[in-house]
């Protein structure tokens, strides 16, 4: 009889554990697809493309100006003194450096603008995901986009401190 009680008790605990595990509802969403289809994303892309084209046109004009100068200097090189040719070579190198710096600046500015425009959209999407998860009673929401991870985990059990303790730090 004692063994029967123990067996019954173990069975009750197992059923309880299975019930708790099943109570934790899990969802998923492809955040990359969601972000691509958000209304503000198209506007953001248009603005970034316009800004990129402006920078590209400016840099192309600088490069054309440099090429024209190089052709001119190459054509006149034989008629010039070595000192003049050295000055011209230094001038060309300075302009090439400026063009490289302009490219780096344009890249940095585009990254800043992209972050500035995309962050509000990302926050809006995250809040919507959390709201829907709460409404559906989801404890975990996974990002099903390639390379995605966990998005919602507010009600789950965080085992970080326990694992840290187990590892001894």
Q: Outline of this structure?
A:
With 169 residues, the chain is mainly alpha-helical.
Keywords for this structure?
169 residues, mainly alpha, 5 helices
Describe the protein in words:
With 169 residues, the chain is mostly helical. 77% of the residues lie in helices and 8% in strands. The chain starts with a helix and ends with a helix. Residues 4-21 have low confidence and may be disordered.
Write the layout of secondary structure elements.
Elements: H1 2-23, E1 25-29, H2 31-37, H3 39-76, H4 82-136, E2 138-143, E3 150-152, H5 160-167
Q: What is the average per-residue confidence, as pLDDT, rounded to a whole number?
A: 83
Question: Could you tell me how far the N terminus lies from the C terminus, measured between alpha carbons in angstroms?
Answer: 47 Å
| Proportion of strand residues | 5-15%
- Major sheet strand order: 1-2-3
Number of separate strands? 3
What would the principal axes of the Cα set say about the shape?
A: elongated
Number of helices: 5
Residue runs with pLDDT of under 50 for 5 or more positions: 4-21
């Amino acid at each position: 009889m004692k063994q029967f009680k123990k067996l019954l008790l173990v069975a009750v605990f197992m059923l309880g554990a299975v019930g708790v595990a099943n109570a934790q509802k899990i969802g998923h969403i492809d955040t990359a697809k969601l972000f691509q289809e958000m209304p503000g994303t198209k506007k953001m892309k248009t603005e970034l493309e316009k800004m990129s084209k402006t920078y590209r046109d400016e840099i192309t004009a600088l490069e054309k100006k440099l090429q024209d100068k190089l052709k001119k200097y190459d054509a006149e090189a034989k008629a010039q003194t070595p000192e003049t040719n050295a000055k011209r070579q230094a001038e060309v190198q300075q302009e090439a450096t400026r063009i490289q710096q302009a490219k780096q600046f344009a890249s940095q500015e585009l990254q800043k603008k992209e972050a500035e425009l995309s962050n509000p959209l990302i926050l809006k999407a995250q809040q919507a995901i959390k709201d829907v998860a709460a409404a559906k009673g989801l404890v975990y929401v996974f990002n099903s986009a390639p390379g995605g991870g966990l998005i919602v985990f507010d009600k789950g059990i965080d085992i970080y401190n326990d694992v840290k303790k187990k590892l001894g730090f």
